C-alpha cells in the first residue's frame, strides 16, 4: 500500500486525503498550524490520521509521495528534508488529475485569474455543460474528483500549484499576464516566477490549446526563446489576428478554427480594459468548446463579476465605495486606479511582497486626492506618495479607514479599497479584509 502524506490540512489537503483514501493509499495529514474543526471532523469520519501544530518527521519521511499545500514554501525545513530524501513532492492538481477523464481548462496569470475562471465557468455552465470549478478557488479539485462526475473542470492555477506539477496538462491553458508577484517565494528572481507560470503549457501537445495575452512583454519575451507545442491563440487590445481574439472599432472579435464571433464591447457586463482581456480569454475557451454564439452573448452580458474584485458596495451621499480587496499586488491596483474616472480616496497597505510603487505614480497624480494607509508598516507607501497627494493618513483598523475616507470624500468622489498588498498583518485573508470593508461601509 502506497503511503500518501499531505502537508497542510486546509481545503486542498483534506480533498486530497479523501481522494487518496478512496484510491487505496495509506493517508496521513500533517499541519504545522491548526486544522479547522470542520476539516478535522471530515478526516476523522473518513478514518484518516492527522496531526496539527507539528510535523512528526518519522511519520512524514516514510512517504511514497507527498502532496504539499500551495501555501507552504519550498524552503520550509520539512520540504527540504523530503527533497533530500528524493520523495516526490507534488501539488493537489498533479495528484488528482490522473484519476479523472474530464477535460481540464487551466487558467493562470498574475491578475484576473479568478474573474476569468468564474467567467469561463459561467459560459460553460450556462451552455448546459456538466462542469466543475476548482484549483485555487472554491471546492478542492481532488475532493470533486473523489465525489463528483464532471465532464469538464475549470481550474484557477497559482504559480505555487504549477510548481508542484510533473505530468499534468490542461487541454486548454490560459496565461493572462505576468507581473512581479510573490517574488519572496522565487528568491526575488523574476525569471523564476515567469518560468513557473509557463509550466502550465509544458506538457501540452499539438492536440491542446494555449491562449495568451499578446500585449504582455514578459510573455512575448519568453515565447521568443522557448517553443510551445500546443496550438496558440493570442488575444490583444491593439493587434488583430487571423486566428485569435482582438478588439476592433468597439467590437470584440474572436476568430478560431475558421469561425468568427463578434460582440459589441459595451454589451459586455464587466467594465474596464483589463476585463476585455479576461472576456476574450474566456470566450476563446467557449468557442473551442463549441458553445452557441447566442449563449455566449447572453452569458457575457449577464455575468456578475467576482466578490472583492472592483465590487461596488454602496453609494452614500453620492460617494461610491468600491471593494477591491483582492488586489494583493501593485499590478492589480494599477488596473483598479486605471478604471477610476472620479477623484479617488485610496485605501492602501498591508504586507508588502517586495512592491515597486513607481509604476502607480502617474495614476496616483492624476486620480488620487487622498491616501489612507491601512497597515502595520506604511513607511514605503508614505515615502513613495507623501509628496504626490495632499492628504495622507495612517490607520490600523478597517472602521477607522472607512470613517476617515468618508470625511475626506466629497460628492461625486470614489472611495477605493485596493491595498496592493497581502492582508495578513491585520486580517485573516483578503476576503476577511473585503468583508470588514463592506461591513464598515454599511455602518456609515
UniProtKB/TrEMBL annotation:
Domain Mur ligase central intervals: 107-285
Alphabetical list of Gene3D superfamilies matching this protein: Mur ligase, C-terminal domain, Mur-like, catalytic domain, NAD(P)-binding Rossmann-like Domain
Catalysed reactions, semicolon-separated: UDP-N-acetyl-alpha-D-muramoyl-L-alanine + D-glutamate + ATP = UDP-N-acetyl-alpha-D-muramoyl-L-alanyl-D-glutamate + ADP + phosphate + H(+)
Enzyme Commission code: 6.3.2.9
InterPro entries referenced in this protein's UniProt entry, alphabetically: Mur-like_cat_sf, Mur_ligase_C, Mur_ligase_C_dom_sf, Mur_ligase_cen, MurD
UniProt domain Mur ligase C-terminal: residue ranges: 308-421
Keywords annotated in UniProt: ATP-binding, Cell cycle, Cell division, Cell shape, Cell wall biogenesis/degradation, Cytoplasm, Ligase, Nucleotide-binding, Peptidoglycan synthesis
Entry keyword annotation includes Cell division: yes
Cell compartments where the protein resides: Cytoplasm
Pathway field: Cell wall biogenesis; peptidoglycan biosynthesis
GO biological process, one term: cell division
Coarse class of the protein's main subcellular location: cytoplasm
Top-level EC class as recorded in UniProt: ligase
Molecular function per GO: ATP binding; UDP-N-acetylmuramoylalanine-D-glutamate ligase activity
Function: Cell wall formation. Catalyzes the addition of glutamate to the nucleotide precursor UDP-N-acetylmuramoyl-L-alanine (UMA).
Protein family: Belongs to the MurCDEF family.
Protein's name according to its UniProt entry: UDP-N-acetylmuramoylalanine--D-glutamate ligase
